[in-house]
Amino acid sequence: MRIVGESGIASGQRRIEAVTGAHALALFDQAQQRLEHVATLLKARPDTLADKVEQLLINNRKQEKEIAQLKTRLASGAGGDLSSQAVEVAGLKLLAASIDGADPRSLRDLADQMKNKLGSGVVLLAAPADDKVALVAAVTKDLTGRVSAGDLMRFAAGKLGGKGGGRPDMAQGGGTDVAALPAMLKEVPGWIEGCLSGE
């Protein structure tokens, strides 16, 4: 006999499904064939397959961490001269830019770096990838009473067909309308002016 399924049918009741005889043997043979096929793909023996899979998972996590670190370095390198792109809007510094090759985590790190470089200002960074855009907005502490990163994020993400939000000093979001990104970035100064005029 071989159990092939288990499910709940009522409170305190379980249904056990099983096959017996030739059907059970056929299922066992199929499972053995799949196991041997997977072992062949992973260049391992069936009895060492679990260890091989565990090692692959460890290596995969390690590589994912290394990729994340490389993306952060790439974004940091790209951000080296970003602060020079900041413009003055209604008396405050604004940096609104698109960064290629960054993921949400490296984008956050870069936004923090840009806040430190500006000293006082508003930062909106976008990272387009395939059919979506990751966004991070950051506002230095001295300006959060005048401009909210959360409000800026809702504006920016909304223009890209997405959503987002966060704290007055840091917010995240995203959108799916990649083609609308350049126009959205150009609209940010006007949004800032409108925000400040409503103080």
Q: What's this model, at a glance?
A:
This protein is an alpha+beta fold and 199 residues long. Helix content is 47%, strand content 27%.
Relevant terms:
single chain; 199 residues; alpha+beta; 6-stranded mixed β-sheet; two-stranded antiparallel sheet; 5 helices; 8 strands; elongated
Give the assembly state of these chains.
single chain
Radius of gyration over C-alpha positions, nearest whole angstrom: 26 Å
The arrangement of helices and strands along the chain is: EEHHEEHEEHEEH
Number of helices: 5
Reading side by side through the largest sheet, how are the strands ordered? 3-4-5-6-8-7
Strand count:
8
Overall helicity: 40-55%
How many strands, which pairing sense, and closed or not: the largest β-sheet?
6 strands, mixed
Based on Cα principal axes, name the global outline. elongated
Query: Could you tell me the strand content as a percent range?
Result: 25-35%
Poorly predicted tracts of residues: none
Q: Terminal Cα separation, in Å?
A: 75 Å
